[in-house]
TrEMBL record:
Organism phylogeny: Bacteria, Pseudomonadati, Pseudomonadota, Gammaproteobacteria, Lysobacterales
Record InterPro entries: Epimerase_deHydtase (IPR001509), Lipid_A_modif_metabolic_enz (IPR050177), NAD(P)-bd_dom_sf (IPR036291)
Pfam families: Epimerase
Name of protein: NAD(P)-dependent oxidoreductase
Residue ranges of domain NAD-dependent epimerase/dehydratase in the record: 3-212
Superkingdom of this protein's organism: Bacteria
């Protein structure tokens, strides 16, 4: 099977390309920069380049994008060009060449302001039924590209799926105050309770989506680690997350105390992956409980694939105030 992977020099693109290659597939990796899994260097904004790359392809995985870290360094027009025009180019050429499945990597950032309830409100219980309220050009273009995918499924018969992934990047948090309060492993382990996922599980979700798209039709799924919390916990999570966690994951405190780690006092959202597990048959392996087991065994919290891919960064330069500049 010949498979196209966009953004193949990035975190998810390389992880997909490596996994598919190891499974015996012919992979065409494209990116604007060179990388170990990139075969064609160019931009998805270039329609002729896309046409050359997609010839003979049966499946397209499309994680290439301008991300949140680019909001402060790239123009809004650049976001429109890459995230919308680039996606449109891929969709139109996919129809022209007879692609069987098209999987678009979106983000939980499309929910935007809906993810931050008012101080007096409980934590947001985030499912696919929540309305998207994008708060920057990144979220706007990702949400619009999702709609393009749905349009092509409905009007052109292209089997498409959208996966809204939560955090899987290995870089440090962009918030200086958060970095000062938690060690990096402490923060990331906390996030597996409500807003993070391991890249190995993201890859497995993409492979299932490609397989199931022709059968299920257009779907949007949240791809995040399975939370131990229940909907009944949302009020308590907002004001006393450790108490709710003590009830759901007894014994976590001892493991944290051994490392001098902290649990967040309040959690403002919980991403719920139930629909992807039910409909795709997705079985994510990496959750908070699994990480605690690794910590007890003295192991790395990251999966082998996450360690292999490592940190890619988002810019060709370094910044003294954090992993990337934040829009004011």
């Amino acid at each position: 099977m010949r498979i196209l992977v966009t953004g193949s020099s990035g975190h998810l693109g390389e992880a997909l390309a490596r996994t598919l290659r190891d499974a015996g597939h012919e992979v065409i990796g494209l990116d604007t920069v060179e990388g170990p899994c990139t075969h064609r260097v160019g931009s998805i904004v270039d329609r002729a380049f896309v046409r050359r790359c997609i010839a003979g392809v049966t499946t397209v995985f499309h994680p290439a994008t301008l991300h949140k870290p680019h909001v402060a360094t790239h123009s809004r027009q650049a976001f429109l060009d890459v995230n919308l025009t680039g996606t449109l180019n891929l969709l139109e050429e996919a129809v022209a060449t007879g692609v069987e499945s098209f999987v678009y990597t979106s983000t939980t950032s499309v929910f935007g302001d809906a993810l931050t309830p008012k101080t007096s409100e409980p934590a947001a219980w985030v499912t696919e039924d929540m309305a998207a309220v994008p708060k920057n050009i990144y979220g706007v273009t990702k949400a619009a590209a999702e709609d393009l995918c749905q349009l092509f499924q409905r009007n052109q018969g292209l089997s498409t799926m959208v996966l809204r992934t939560s955090r899987f990047f290995p870089e440090e948090d962009d918030d200086r105050t958060v970095r000062a309060r938690y060690t990096d492993d402490n923060l990331k382990t906390n996030e597996y309770l409500y807003r993070r996922v391991d890249i190995e599980d993201v890859v497995s979700a993409h492979l299932l989506a490609a397989r199931r798209a022709p059968v299920l039709g257009f779907r949007r799924y949240i791809i995040s680690a399975t939370t131990p919390f229940q909907h009944d916990d949302v009020a308590e999570l907002r004001v006393h997350a450790p108490l709710a966690l003590r009830r759901r994951v007894p014994g976590y405190e001892e493991i944290y105390a051994q490392r001098g780690w902290r649990m967040a006092q309040g959690i403002d959202r919980v991403y719920v992956n139930q629909r992807a597990r039910d409909e795709l048959g997705w079985a994510p392996r990496h959750d908070f409980a699994a990480l605690l087991e690794r910590l007890q065994a003295g192991e790395d919290i990251r999966s082998p694939l996450a360690r292999l891919i490592g940190s890619k960064g988002y810019h060709g330069e370094t910044f003294g105030d954090g992993p990337y500049p934040v829009e004011s």
